[in-house]
Design brief:
rod-shaped, single chain, mainly alpha
Length: 93
Amino acid sequence: MSAKVMQMPAVHQGYSTARYVLRNHPYHDLDAIDAAFEVLAYSQDPADKELCRIVADEMWLVPRPGAMVIAITMVAVVAACVGLATLAGRLVL
């Protein structure tokens, strides 16, 4: 730890260490990551909660829909609607 961190109270050293572990989670074992999650669970800082969410999503490989995924989905929905409208039009006539 840096000298700046060593001068902090023990609680803040724990938060600082936990943030460091989560920011560099590929280089730490699962026990250290789990301990970091448990420490930051008591933090009042919303940025710590967001860091936990981001790392958890990354570790569980939660996909984030990009613009391309949304565009492809919309094209598929439009194509399905046009197909159903065409089919309904042929049945009515």
